[in-house]
Design brief:
Structural class of chain B: mainly beta
CATH class of the largest domain in chain B: Mainly Beta
Strand order of the largest sheet of chain A: 15-14-11-12-13-16-23-21
Radius of gyration of chain A: 26 Å
CATH superfamily of the largest domain in chain B: RNA polymerase II/Efflux pump adaptor protein, barrel-sandwich hybrid domain
Shape of chain B: elongated
Oligomer: heterodimer
Number of strands of chain A: 24
Shape of chain A: globular
Distance between the termini of chain A: 64 Å
Number of domains of chain B: 2
Number of helices of chain B: 2
Chain lengths: 507, 173
């Protein structure tokens, strides 16, 4: 079935995975379970990566920089043609939210595992997304349209109440953004934001938005089939972020009760239906202190943090994506979705929490994954693999499940202690510190918590003495060995005898 | 034999003789795992030699431990007191990337921990900070430049006297 809005749905038996790392592994596993043949792609940097070995076939697509390999649409379509793959899963990142890629797949007669191209286009445009969901009755953060005069914006600000945010229309990453607490400060903020926006984006158009203080970032997972059925799989709490990068996610959320879940879920379904959405998607909301929620954006792809939802609902989201793309009806109805237990995900990144979270590159020299009850690790990095500057710094996702939140936290603490990665610095101590933090344990945090009120400085290094002992013993062992080899009589025996003795010692 | 093990700012003096407490230390053949039984208390870690120190990973925390015998320790400390008080401190690029900004100018007074370079790598902006107090004497890169790992970026000099230049207006922004 092919729709006018750029959706192609049909049965397929061979899947190309246009991604790398843990998400490529995740998709490979789902495809294997469904008996679908798999095709991997790799850049020069990824010849040794596990996704190449786990796939049935693998094709080289160019040099390490993504714009010369994983982001080149023609190369991916060419691999699909050469390998006979009938479908492409984009994963997340890279080409996952490019309208042109989805359309190019459909034009080539290849199933794109994701929504129709038109839905990606609308949701990818901030302004269009906002207008579309507002028309469907979805609440959004109050604000003005870009391009109004200072007087108009001031009047709007007075009406919605302070604090407000002055934002750049072309903005992103906090550039050109100014919080304003009082009407008197608006003029300065307009001027400052315009100056910054002009130099950063070459466009000084600004608008204002009500500032939601002590906001939480909570998102709703959706599944929609091509037969008009759309369901929500509950929420994920994603407030623990640093510079807009999520670090810890959990499901369910500490602050969402059954009534709020239903209301947010129904609004999310309405937003998806407004763009005739198909496949897995996520609606992100800001939730304020009074538990009012506002549409932030829609992610038209599988999310990094999808496993927490899988653990509390028992639904394999990636398998569902493949089934939906093959034209199947959803097997689950809304009333069958049950949230059971609690799941927490920690993103294990190659970065140094004691040194301003500086990314750490290098080759993984040792990796011992935690295991045991309630522990899942999704990773695409093994011993010998490099954390290179070409791609993101995520080593793995550690996900723990418990009957209650408390049990999930205890499991996470245990698993973090068990997890051993050497070769690069990791943010495991950050997660351990968070799992010990009273604010985290009592669920009292918002999107600013990590950056403004959480510090690694008060973390004790409790095992320094043991570390000193172990290193000293290892050094001592080396000294003794060295002394045995060369010191006595300066090697009075023949070289061959000496060599065999040396070999015995090192066996 | 006497060793001095340094972990961050702490120093431990450890003597290994005919030990009065029972120690059973093993390095297992797989993946750097070692096991220490000390009076039956079990301590397990992954340890790995990296240059002139050891990486020791215990329960999620990574400790960089430098172990020296007495002689090596004394030698280094003699050198340290004569050289490191003066001279230049250089900020190197810890990884390949692109320079986003250099928020200091030559002549600026900086303090230990101040932002001196913003480097984009691995899709993130990373702040590189001054390794100590001093005055910026050289800036070797400009925004937009691609840099390699270990490339020198900014040099900070220990001032000779107290007549320090004041921070410029631009650096205050």
């Amino acid at each position: 079935m092919e729709r006018k809005d750029g959706l192609l749905v049909k049965k397929f038996d061979k899947l190309l995975i246009a991604n790398r790392g843990e998400i490529a592994m995740r998709i490979l596993r789902a495809a294997r379970e469904l008996g679908i043949a798999t095709v991997a792609v790799y850049s020069d940097a990824d010849r040794d990566a596990p996704h190449v070995r786990f796939a049935d076939e693998a094709y080289h697509i160019g040099p390490p920089p993504a714009r010369e390999s994983y982001l080149v649409i023609e190369k991916l379509l060419d691999v699909a043609r050469r390998s006979g793959a009938e479908a492409i899963h984009p994963g997340y990142g890279f080409l996952a939210e490019r309208e042109t890629f989805a359309q190019a797949c459909v034009d080539a007669g290849i199933v794109f595992i994701g929504p129709p191209a038109r839905a990606i286009g609308i949701m990818g445009d901030k302004l269009m997304a906002r207008q579309t969901v507002v028309a469907a009755g979805v609440p959004v953060v109050p604000g003005t349209m870009p391009g109004q005069s200072d007087e108009e914006m001031k009047a709007a600000a007075l009406q919605m109440g302070f604090p407000v945010l002055v934002k750049a229309a072309a903005g992103g990453g906090g550039k050109g953004m100014r919080p304003v607490l009082r009407a008197e400060d608006l003029a300065d903020a307009f001027a400052g934001a315009r100056r910054e926006a002009k130099s950063a984006f070459g466009d000084d158009t600004v608008y204002i938005e009500k500032m939601i203080t002590e906001a939480r970032h909570i998102e709703i997972q959706l599944l929609a089939d091509s037969h008009g059925n759309t369901i929500y799989l509950g929420e994920r709490e994603c407030s623990l972020q640093r510079r807009h990068q999520k670090l810890i996610e959990e499901a369910p959320s500490f602050i969402v009760d059954a009534d709020l879940r239903r209301r947010m879920g129904e609004v999310a379904v309405a937003a998806a239906k407004a763009v005739d959405y198909v496949n897995a998607g996520t609606i992100e909301f800001l939730v304020d202190k009074e538990r009012n929620f506002y549409f932030l954006e829609m992610n038209t792809r599988v999310q990094v943090e999808h496993p927490v939802t899988e653990l509390v609902t028992g639904i394999d989201i990636v398998q569902e994506q493949l089934r939906i793309a093959r034209g199947r009806r959803l097997r689950i109805r809304q009333e069958d979705v049950r949230i059971k237990g609690w799941a927490i995900e920690c993103r294990i990144n190659a970065e140094d929490p004691y040194n301003n979270y500086l990314p750490s590159t290098g080759t993984i020299t040792a990796s011992h994954l935690p295991t045991g009850p309630g522990v899942r690790v999704d990773t695409g990095v093994y011993v010998g693999n490099a954390i290179s500057p070409y791609y993101d710094s995520m080593i793995s996702k550690l996900i723990c499940y418990g009957e209650t939140r408390g049990e999930a936290v205890l499991r996470m603490r245990r698993a973090l202690e068990e997890y051993r990665v050497l070769g690069v610095k990791t943010n495991i101590p950050f997660h351990q510190h968070m799992m010990d933090s009273h604010r985290f344990l009592s669920g009292q945090f918002d999107t600013n918590f990590v950056e403004e009120r959480f510090s690694m400085d008060d973390r004790e290094a409790p095992r320094a003495l043991e570390a000193a002992l172990l290193a000293t013993l290892a050094t001592h062992e080396q000294y003794q060995r060295a002394a045995q080899i060369v010191a006595p009589g300066d090697r009075d025996t023949s070289n061959w005898k000496w060599y065999s003795r040396w070999e015995r010692l090192h066996r | 034999m006497k060793y001095i093990a340094t972990v961050k700012d702490k120093e431990y003096t450890i003597e290994i003789d005919d030990v009065p407490i029972e120690i059973d230390f093993r390095r297992l053949p797989s993946g750097g795992v070692s096991s220490l039984l000390m009076n039956h208390r079990s301590i397990s870690a992954v340890i790995e030699e990296v240059g002139d120190y050891w990486d020791v990973l215990i329960e999620g925390e990574l400790y960089a431990v430098k172990v020296q015998d007495e002689r090596a320790y004394r030698l280094e400390h003699m050198r340290a007191t004569t050289v490191s008080m003066s001279g230049d401190a250089t900020v190197f690029s810890p990884m390949p990337g692109i320079i986003i900004a250099v928020p200091v100018s030559v002549g600026d007074r900086v303090h230990h921990g101040d932002k001196v370079v913003i480097l984009e790598s691995m899709k993130m902006e990373n702040e590189l900070r001054a390794p100590r107090d001093g005055v910026v004497s050289q800036i070797l890169v400009s925004p937009g430049a691609s840099v390699e790992k270990d490339q020198p970026l900014v040099v900070i000099t220990q001032p000779d006297d107290d007549a320090l230049p004041q921070p410029s207006e631009a650096a205050a922004e």
